Amino acid sequence: MMPLASTMIRWNGVSTLLGMQNSQRLLIAPSNVVCRWKHSFKTNRSAYKRFRVRGDGSLKRNKAGKSHNTGHKGRRRVTNLSQSTGIMEPKIEKRMRMLIGAKK
Asked: For residue 91, what are the domain limits?
């Protein structure tokens, strides 16, 4: 709750309400500060290594299950696991696009 008899000071572009205890002070952003750019995320490096953008703009991924224990799997199955495939779910593709920083 703000006291009625508080004093407003400006320090380094941030307004501070005085007259309150240190744990209760409020920092108020000045009204003349304007954000000139959108926040951009760092690309997720692990996702960047796993997904690639195809020429048509869709994302390409490798299939799981071929790195080891392929002795008991049939040759056709292992061959099919070697081929890359796309991401079929639109929501997941959108999320992966955000992670790797790809535009459509």
From this structure: 45-100
